[in-house]
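Problem: given the chain below (378 residues), write out its structure.
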Amino acid sequence: MTDVLIHADTDRDPTMRHEVPLTVPDPFLYIEHDGRRYAVITAFERERLGAAAPDIEALAPEQFGMDELLRAGTPPAEAWLEVYTRALREIGVGEASIPSRFPVEIADHLRAQGVTLRVDRELFDGRRRSKTAAEIAGLRRAQRACEAALDVARKMLRESEARDGYLHLGGEPLTSERIKAEMQVVFIAHGAVADEFIVASGPQGAVGHDMGSGPIAADLPVVFDLWPRDTQTAVYTDMTRTYVVGTVPDEIGEYHRLCKEALARTAEAARPGVNGRALMQIACDLFAEHGYPTQLTKQPGEVLDSGFFHGLGHGVGLEVHERPRLSVTGDELVPGDVITLEPGLYRAGYGGVRLEDILLVTDDGVETVTQYPYDLAP
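Solution.
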């Protein structure tokens, strides 16, 4: 059995959060050895750790001489390095796998003390792909929060009126900022948070991760790409819908029809064992048949700013973008994966359409977790 070391906090590091399912804002050392789990962690977190993960043995830095080191004038950073070295020596760890984000300073010190460390990206990515029951529950909560917030945004769009080419609500311009502020309230009320998300009108919606700003245009698409995080589990969801208030241009109508068809085709084909690139190919073939450039049909070296210029989707969990890949390169899907499918078509300087659902890969197919209509009209 491979020994494992992780050094991080659980607030910012998804690898640690997957192993220790609570918010610990300060970094600590997590250890797996001979089928047992340990954490070298301060007394401040011991009680919470015991409640959240009772199988993890909490090891106090004091039992490895922290007090004596500090009294002798050892700088705190060096004292922690020595404590970690002594802990690993006592437990019997001589070699271990570490994630790619493992701190260089600690790795250099442990290697100098004779501990063999190997970066194993595949090991840690693979652990997080199969979601726990708690993580799946968090995904569902985040998705319901996402849908409730979009309900509020759509109501604002429906109740607005066009004036001089832009939407107004309550006598004031309707802006991305106004819509986002109302959606944030809904996220929080449903136990979710979102540091940022996309409400992008017209040309902004054709610029990748342009978050959107300023007034919302009438008769042009507005792209809503939302990725709130469940506060209890730190698990994300991800959903995109596109709306037009007013007259739908024929070009946007075609984009929407093709994106919806691509979403349906790829969802039908998704199942364990299917490679993410094969799903990408399905969407690209459809778009190419109708004359739109894609990542799989463009010339080598060509940079796209229109057509289908991004990947089909990605894994979602403790990061909003994680394995498996569903793009120019892909991973075979496995049960427990959570993936998005987000086909899109765009014209630079004008606008675009993207539709995105989130799906859970089951033993024999997929479950579409998203439960939201695709209408272009809000």
